[in-house]
Write a structure and sequence with these properties.
- The protein has helices spanning 14-26, 133-143, 156-167, 188-200, 248-252, 295-309, 373-384, 391-395, 401-404; strands at residues 6-10, 31-35, 76-78, 83-87, 92-95, 100-102, 105-108, 112-114, 127-129, 148-152, 171-175, 204-206, 211-216, 222-226, 231-234, 236-239, 243-245, 261-262, 274-276, 281-285, 288-290, 321-326, 329-335, 343-350, 353-360, 363-370.
- It is α/β, with parallel strands linked by helices.
- It folds into 3 domains: 6-113 and 243-309, FAD/NAD(P)-binding domain; 116-239, FAD/NAD(P)-binding domain; 328-404, FAD/NAD-linked reductase, C-terminal dimerisation domain (Enolase-like, domain 1, 2-Layer Sandwich), CATH 3.30.390.30.
- β1 (6-10), α1 (14-26) and β2 (31-35) form a beta-alpha-beta unit.
- It is globular, with a radius of gyration of 22 Å.
- It binds flavin-adenine dinucleotide.
């Protein structure tokens, strides 16, 4: 029998694939088994609400592990397999079919699942949730036959779906319960600017709108009543009301879980043989345990978990970031948004290009950018190196951010 370390990874999103690739780089001899509940080569999710919906790309065109797939890295992919339980005492995972898969070390990368609204249950013909390739292709097919779409929730996914539908010529209305869009990542002025951009593309965003009842007519059209007494009808509804961490396996196995699998800065769970990474975790942030739901976090935390699963000693220290694409806007966030920044500064770069900085004293804490990729890269280095910054210089577009990196720390 081989004495190679046997690493089993559950979940083949960016965290699971990132873990597998990093484990392979750390230990060339390890047996690495990646368990996925989908049948296909692991693919990236971000295009699903963007180019896949508009028909410009197919999910398989963006394999997470690159053109050769995970197999090209001597990683065994066991697809179409759902893990049903972890036998911690026996060091094995048990699949839904009852197969026992032994591990020396296990990495949980089970991601997150959509938050389902009871009034709009998943699985109805005209009601869509978006997380997988199958769901994206089903939605795309139906969008092609629809004239009128209702999106519930003006978060990043809801707004990307709205932008894609508008591009396809589908009349789109977005119902959002909060008083402004993207309140978690944007200041009020930027929220208003993004909403105006949607309006200019014909997307009607209704704020402060809570739904109270849903009725499906025999022809499949859906009527949604709001608490304010209005009714909106559409051929199709997409629900984008956020996600919850998929910590079910961990919880059932008795691992420490608190709305996410609790991990330390080396990605270990409360069981030293089990690590976890990505959307499913709650990890140590600068202001206490925190969850993130974005691609880069999943990929980078996955890489740390994979390295450590294979005997490494890496700590996870993230500068959070996300991006979103809506129409001609490339929106990015970088850093930790503060509940009460000491100052907020805006830099207008062009008609559709700007930066908004949150300061913590004389340090940059968070920056939101629209069509400002190069500046966001410089801002990231200002944040990570804790370079002191001057608010007036940040506001002045003639002062390159890259030059501020030379300031003494
Ligand atoms: C439509 C869409 C667009 C997005 N766009 C962006 C974007 O533009 N920018 C950005 O930063 N982020 C974006 N994200 C978020 C980003 O894709 C996620 O944060 C990231 O995929 C999380 O990675 P993960 O590996 O932790 O989990 P996931 O990608 O969710 O992967 C987890 C996998 O594990 C599988 N799994 C779970 N339980 C089991 C089990 N018991 N057995 C076997 N398999 C299991 C799941 O089915 C899933 O395939 C988007 C997400 C979606 C859905």
């Amino acid at each position: 029998m081989s004495d190679a370390r046997r690493i089993v990874i559950v979940g083949a999103g960016p965290a699971g694939v990132g873990a597998a690739l990093a484990a392979r780089a750390q230990d060339l001899a390890a047996e690495i088994l990646l368990i996925a509940d989908e049948r296909c080569e692991p693919y990236e999710k971000p295009p699903l609400s963007k180019t896949v919906l508009t028909g410009k790309a197919m999910p398989h065109e963006a394999p997470i592990a690159g053109p050769g797939g995970v197999g090209g890295h001597k990683i065994t992919l066991k697809g179409d397999t759902r893990c049903a339980a972890i036998d911690r005492g026996g060091h094995a995972v048990v699949t839904e079919e009852g197969e026992r898969i032994p591990y020396d070390i296990l990495v949980l990368a089970s991601g997150s699942i959509n938050r389902v609204l009871p009034l709009l249950p998943a699985g109805q013909p005209s009601i869509h949730y978006l997380r997988t390739e199958r769901e994206a292709l089903g939605l795309r097919e139906q969008l092609g036959r629809s004239r009128c779409l209702l999106v519930i929730g003006a978060g990043l996914i809801g707004l990307e779906v709205a932008a894609s539908a508008a591009e396809l010529g589908v009349k789109t209305t977005v119902l959002e319960v909060a008083p402004r869009i993207l309140a978690r990542v944007c200041d009020p002025e930027t929220s208003a600017l993004l909403q105006a951009h949607h309006a200019a593309h014909g997307v009607d965003i209704r704020l402060g709108t809570a739904i109270s009842a849903v009725r499906t007519s025999p022809d499949g059209r859906i009527a949604i009543a709001t608490q304010a007494g209005q009714t909106f009808t559409a051929d199709l509804v997409v629900v984008g009301t956020g996600v919850v961490p998929d910590d079910r396996l961990a919880q059932a196995a008795g691992l420490d879980v608190q709305d996410g699998i609790l991990v330390d800065d080396h990605c270990f769970t409360s069981d030293r043989s089990i690590l976890a990474a990505g959307d499913c975790t709650r990890f140590v942030g600068p202001r206490g345990p925190v969850r993130l739901e974005n691609w880069r976090h999943a990929q980078e935390q996955g890489a740390v978990a994979g390295r450590n699963a294979a005997g490494g000693d890496a700590a996870y220290n993230v500068t959070p970031s996300f991006w979103s694409e809506q129409y001609d806007l490339y929106i990015q966030g970088m850093g930790w948004p503060l509940p009460q920044p000491s100052a907020q500064v805006r830099r207008q770069i062009g008609p559709n290009a700007m930066l908004r900085f949150d300061l913590d004293g004389d340090h940059l804490s968070y920056v939101l950018g629209i069509n400002a990729q190069r500046d966001i890269a410089a801002a990231r280095r200002l944040i990570e190196r804790r370079v002191p910054v001057d608010a007036a210089a940040l506001a002045d577009p003639s002062q390159p951010l890259a030059a501020m990196l030379k300031a003494k720390t």
